[in-house]
Amino acid sequence: MDDVLVIKITGKLFDTDASLIKGYVEIFKDLSRKYKLAIITGGGGLARKYIGYAREIGVSSNYWLDMIGIRSAQLNAYLLISSLYPKAYPEPVNNLEELLRIINNYEIAVLGGLIPGQSTASVALEVAEALGVNKVIDYSAIDKVYDKDPVKYPDAKPYNKISITKLREILRQKQLPGEYALIDLRALDIAERSKITIIITHYKKPETIYDILRGENPGTIIYP
Ligand SMILES: Nc1ncnc2c1ncn2[C@@H]1O[C@H](COP(=O)(O)OP(=O)(O)O)[C@@H](O)[C@H]1O
Ligand SMILES: O=c1ccn([C@@H]2O[C@H](COP(=O)(O)OP(=O)(O)O)[C@@H](O)[C@H]2O)c(=O)[nH]1
């Protein structure tokens, strides 16, 4: 199979101005001339807004709250697809079997969420594992992995490289709908078992993907 890039984008991209989204579209169109792209979009503010509404009207089931998040992430995926079609498969891919069927016929496949109990980071690792890709580029809401949450602890220290084992010790995030901050534990388990490296870079700098493709490290390398 041609070189495939597995790219995860925080849903926060879709909470910003359209010009940044347009910047991603242009980069993906450029990259699709040389690579197959499997893009995974997060749920962002849309997911948190609707999960919040659901909780306010008394929905407490994590199944329903996660499903709302999944559909939110799929709507963000649709936005990218609408601008990348006909290069992109014309709907968010619903499962890994479908992905394996369509990836040979389209330059770009876009996914939102897949199943309750995980985040889109897990989707990205499931996609990479299914496609036999050993690297995931994760456009995150943070520039690097730190030794603790830098938003809460200003004295947090950044890592340029960190092992999955060490990161698992650091992460304390709740694995709940709308939470799973930074990366969820299931994603790390898949990365570890299939020896997949995750490269974190800030979503406000989409062009850093070219540095990564040249072997540079603009953020943090999470290695198995
Ligand atoms: N050790 C850590 N290093 C970096 N960020 C962390 C860490 N622990 C928690 N976080 C939080 O995770 C957030 C990034 O996760 P998130 O907002 O879910 O982004 P994404 O949408 O890319 O998953 C950061 O803004 C930060 O508040
Ligand atoms: O396979 C998936 C992907 C996402 N989600 C839900 O959808 C929300 C939004 O996804 P994510 O948190 O990954 O988006 P981001 O952090 O990028 O905004 C998650 O919090 C989960 O509640 C899910 O249940 N299964």
UniProtKB/TrEMBL annotation:
What is this protein's gene name? pyrH
Is Nucleotide-binding included in the keywords of this UniProt record?
yes
Q: What is its EC number?
A: 2.7.4.22
Task: Identify a single GO molecular function assigned to this protein.
Answer: UMP kinase activity
- Its EC top class is transferase
Localization: Cytoplasm
Is this entry keyworded DNA-binding?
no
Task: Enumerate the catalysed reactions.
Answer: UMP + ATP = UDP + ADP
From the UniProt record, give the pathway where this protein acts.
Pyrimidine metabolism; CTP biosynthesis via de novo pathway; UDP from UMP (UMPK route): step 1/1
Q: Name one GO biological process term.
A: UDP biosynthetic process
Domain Aspartate/glutamate/uridylate kinase span(s) in chain numbering = 4-201
Q: What does this protein do?
A: Catalyzes the reversible phosphorylation of UMP to UDP.
The protein's name in its UniProt record: Uridylate kinase
